[in-house]
Design goal:
Layout (H helix, E strand, L loop, with lengths): L1 H19 L6 E7 L1 H6 L1 H8 L14 H8 L1 H4 L8 E8 L2 E8 L8 H4 L8 E13 L2 E4 L4 E7 L15 E6 L29 E6 L4 E3 L1
Antiparallel strand pairs: 1-2, 2-3, 3-4, 4-5, 4-6, 5-8, 6-7, 8-9
Length: about 220
C-alpha cells in the first residue's frame, strides 16, 4: 500500500513539474496599445527625453521627440490612434520571435515626409529571435541570437538624420553592436516598447493564454 501511494505521489509530482516548466505556453501573444497609452509609458518617455545621437556621434536632426508626429500627424496633434503599437510574441518549441511595430497609415504621413519617401511607407519594425524557458506563466526570453529590421523612419535623405543614420529594410544582425546599426537594434530588445536600452539582457515576461496577451 505504501509503495502504491509513493508511486501515485511520484506521478503527481512529475505532472506538476511538467506544468510548472511551461509545457503549454507555446502560442502567439499580442499586446496592442493606442498612441496615448504608448507615449504615456515611462520607458517611452525616457527615450523621447534622451538626446538622440547618430552612429557618427552627432546629434540627430530628426529626434524621436519629433519623428512620431511627422509619420503620423494625428500623434502630432495629440489625437489617440487606436492599435498604434503592437508587440507580438510567438513561442514555439523552445524558440521565440518577438516583433515590435509602430503602425503607420499613409493617409496621415505628413506631406513633407511624403515628398521624400524612398519606400512605399515609413516603417519602424523589429523582430527578435532566440530561445526561451518557462516556469508556469513566467517565460524567460534569452538574449536574442538575431534581429531582423525594417526601419525607414522618415524617408530618403532624411533617414540619415535620425538616430539610425540610414535605412535598414530587410536587414538583419546576429551580434549586438553598441554603435552601429543593424547590430545596435539588439539594444531595442528589453522592455515591451520600441525604445533603446542601455544594455541587452534576457527578459522575463508573463503570458496570459486565456486572453492571448503578455506583460513584460
Amino acid at each position: 500500500m505504501k509503495k502504491t501511494i509513493a508511486l501515485i505521489l511520484a506521478v503527481i509530482s512529475v505532472v506538476a513539474l511538467l506544468a510548472s516548466c511551461g509545457a503549454k505556453v507555446d502560442g502567439t501573444y499580442t499586446v496592442s496599445l493606442g498612441s496615448n497609452d504608448y507615449f504615456a509609458a515611462q520607458a517611452v518617455k525616457n527615450d523621447l527625453e534622451s538626446t538622440d545621437k547618430r552612429p557618427d556621434g552627432s546629434d540627430a536632426q530628426v529626434p524621436f521627440s519629433r519623428l512620431f508626429g511627422m509619420i503620423d500627424t494625428r500623434v502630432g496633434e495629440g489625437t489617440n490612434v487606436a492599435d498604434y503599437y503592437t508587440a507580438t510574441l510567438t513561442l514555439n518549441g523552445g524558440t521565440y520571435k518577438l516583433t515590435k511595430k509602430i503602425a503607420v497609415d499613409i493617409d496621415y504621413v505628413s506631406d513633407a515626409v511624403k515628398g521624400m519617401m524612398s519606400t512605399d511607407i515609413p516603417m519602424l519594425e523589429l523582430t527578435f529571435t532566440g530561445s526561451y524557458t518557462a516556469d508556469g506563466t513566467k517565460v524567460t526570453l534569452s538574449v536574442p541570437t538575431k534581429v531582423d529590421a525594417n526601419v525607414t523612419p522618415v524617408a530618403g535623405m532624411a533617414d540619415a538624420y535620425t538616430r539610425f543614420g540610414g535605412t535598414y529594410v530587410g536587414e538583419s544582425a546576429t551580434e549586438a553592436d553598441d554603435t552601429n546599426y543593424p547590430g545596435k537594434f539588439f539594444y531595442y530588445f528589453n522592455t515591451l516598447y520600441f525604445v533603446e536600452n542601455a544594455a541587452v539582457s534576457e527578459m522575463t515576461v508573463t503570458v496570459d493564454s486565456a486572453n492571448g496577451t503578455f506583460a513584460a
